[in-house]
Amino acid sequence: MKKMIRGFKTATLMLCATGLLYTAKAKGPEMDYAVLEVVADAEPVLIEPVVALKEVPAFNVYAERLYKEINFEKGRKLNKEVFFKALHGYLNLRNSGQLDTRRDILSVCDFSLSSNQPRLWVIDLKKKKVLFNTLVAHGQGSGEEFATAFSNVEGSHQSSMGFFVTASTYYGDKGYSLKLEGKDHGYNDQAFNRAIVIHAADYVSYDFIAANNRLGRSWGCPSLPTALNRPIIDMIKGGTALFIYSKNQKYLASSKWLKQHPSIDASEKMGAEENTMLAEVVPAKTQMDSVAKVMPKPKPQLKPIPAEAYFQ
Fold it and tell me: Does 17 fall in a domain?
């Protein structure tokens, strides 16, 4: 028995040492595009032991490697600092049980950028690739071309900043939509009650920009191009993380998802060929399409129901 215990302790120490001594491998045009994939139901697998990253440099090594390995292809490259913060919060949300751990999808809206640029990224962290990079609207009360004001108050018509978790879908007066649950107290925790959702809008288009010198605006919702609304919602619905970034220093210093140093699974420190996460992806042919060329799926013949009915 003593030998068995000693052997277990030795194996545990070796695993931890391997994780802690890991060394990172350093390794266009602004058009919307989408890489559409089919995600299969995941089979239960054993979760690797968790290795705590309690030192800022350790997290930075992991984040730096992941950022360098992500294939941004034809899309605009997400700012590294914004990605680090999004990843930081994503890991804390996942470790606290807020996310669907069968998937590794992270969505980021960089609202420090002009609304005339593609500023929404949907990233598959496991496959290290951008699935979507497209336009996204901010609220009318947040500003014109740039979002400069944010609110958590009903009737403000302003966007909310911070971390969200995607919930369920529904058909409302804006068509196929996705509910959001705000996870930052005082900054976006009223999003669900405000009916802040992801939905399609005709004013989220390059044609609108050309005619008005800026993108159209919502009443606070992160609205998407009509052609990409359904594929994006179907990819991120049901328990994935969304980070809406702004340069608000008070928020960045106070969000509990950014204050605590996250932990990561030991498996995430392995090479890409060895990494086995909780979801398996069925190989699919990569499709690179502009917004104008992506054909929307036919909508079911359902009677629209006002969004308010779902938030009573």
Answer: no
Residue 155 belongs to some domain of the structure = yes
Under a CB-based contact definition with an 8 Å cutoff, are residues 80 and 215 in contact? no
CA-nearest of 127, 55, 79, 81 to 284 is: 127
CA dihedral 223, 226, 228, 234 (to 10 degrees): 70
Output the pLDDT for position 11: 44
CA–CA distance, 61 with 63 (Å, rounded to integer): 6
Considering only CA atoms, which of 164, 284, 217, 206 is closest in space to residue 30?
Answer: 206
C-alpha dist (Å) from residue 304 to 30, 202, 206, 309: 34, 17, 27, 11
One-letter amino acid of 287: Q
DSSP 125-189: TTTTEEEEEE----BGGG-SSS---B--STTS--B--EEEEEEEEEEETTEEEEEEEE-STTTTT
Query: Are β-strands 263-265 and 281-282 bridged in parallel, bridged antiparallel, or unpaired?
Result: unpaired
pLDDT above 90 covers a percentage of the chain that reads: 61
Report the predicted TM-score, pTM, of the whole model to 2 decimal places.
0.72
User: What's the average pLDDT block by block, 10 residues per block, for the chain (312 residues)?
Assistant: 46 39 36 47 41 64 94 87 97 95 96 97 96 97 96 96 98 96 97 96 97 96 97 98 97 93 60 34 36 49 53 44
User: Any idea what the CATH number is for the domain that residue 88 is in?
Assistant: 2.40.440.10
31 φ, ψ (degrees, to nearest 5): -125, 140
